[in-house]
Amino acid sequence: MTTPPVYLEWHAKTEHCSGRTGSFSTLRFYVVPGVETFPTRDGLKVGEWVTEGTSSRIVVAGKYQDHEMVVRHEMLHSLLRAEGHPSEYFVNRCRLTWESWNSPPGSLALGSSD
User: Fewest C-beta atoms under 10 Å: which of 25, 67, 73, 75?
Assistant: First the structure.
């Protein structure tokens, strides 16, 4: 897919909230057109981050390619270079889970990572 210009802005926001930096130019974005979810080795997902050496591939279901939280969630995986969802980053710092996305700051307790 042609990377939408707003993705660069979203990447900067994700760097800021996480305190991590990464090269946007190493990210490759793909969309699965016309779907809400797509199959992965871990089951159905709306987005997936896959590392490939020094670059990363982010795949997003077509329905969510313009959804800031979904795209930034996968960008955060890339910045952390890790699977799983440490609450420190995904909930408390960046609010990039379905549960934390629209909740007011300070309303969520620090949970465990999964």
Answer: 25
